[in-house]
């Protein structure tokens, strides 16, 4: 297994995972209100891996989990955010809508992803977003 590595901003948390074969589920850009608030941007770039491929090489005990409790994201699913307790970097998310899978953030990847399918294949948009964000024809909803 060839490992891809992600780390937080301060380096206290580091994890490895495989993006080979069926361990890699897909890549997507999300414009939901939740992702826009968490990233302070108009979208978040994410990729999904199988849970069982994610291994911590350091700092697992430095992860703080935040879940809003009742479904708060626009899809109605619960979303657990996993942050570095020291620097606040969002390392990954776990959604009740993607059981057995982890939603990784592109911004924490150290190694260059060599994913053969190229750019994100899905762009998720929701009815509450700004009209300026609805120009893409390749959209999907969670």
Describe the secondary structure blueprint for this structure:
Blueprint: E1 3-7, E2 14-18, E3 24-30, H1 33-39, E4 44-50, E5 55-58, E6 63-67, E7 79-84, E8 90-95, E9 101-105, E10 122-124
Parallel strand pairs: 3-10
Antiparallel strand pairs: 1-2, 2-5, 3-4, 4-9, 6-7, 7-8, 8-9
Please, could you describe this protein's structure?
By secondary structure, the protein is mainly beta. The chain is built from one helix and ten strands. It has one helix at residues 33-39, and strands at residues 3-7, 14-18, 24-30, 44-50, 55-58, 63-67, 79-84, 90-95, 101-105, 122-124. Strands 6-7-8-9-4-3-10 form a seven-stranded mixed sheet. β8 (90-95) and β9 form a beta hairpin. The longest helix is centred in the first third of the chain and has 7 residues, at 33-39. The termini are far apart. Residues 111-117 and 128-142 have low confidence and may be disordered.
Features:
seven-stranded mixed β-sheet; disordered C terminus; 142 residues; globular; mainly beta; 1 helix; single chain; 10 strands; three-stranded antiparallel β-sheet
């Amino acid at each position: 297994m060839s490992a891809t590595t992600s780390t937080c901003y301060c380096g206290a948390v580091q994890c490895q995972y495989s993006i080979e074969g069926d361990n890699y589920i897909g890549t997507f850009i999300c414009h939901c209100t939740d992702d826009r608030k968490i990233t302070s941007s108009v979208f978040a770039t994410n990729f999904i891996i199988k849970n069982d491929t994610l291994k911590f090489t350091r700092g697992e005990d430095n992860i703080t989990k935040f879940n809003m409790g009742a479904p708060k994201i626009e899809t109605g699913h619960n979303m657990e955010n996993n942050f570095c307790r020291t620097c606040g970097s969002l390392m990954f998310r776990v959604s009740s809508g993607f059981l057995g899978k982890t939603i990784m953030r592109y911004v924490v990847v150290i190694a260059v992803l060599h994913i053969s399918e190229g750019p994100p294949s899905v762009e998720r948009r929701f009815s509450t977003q700004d009209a300026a964000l609805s120009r893409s024809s390749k959209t999907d909803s969670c």
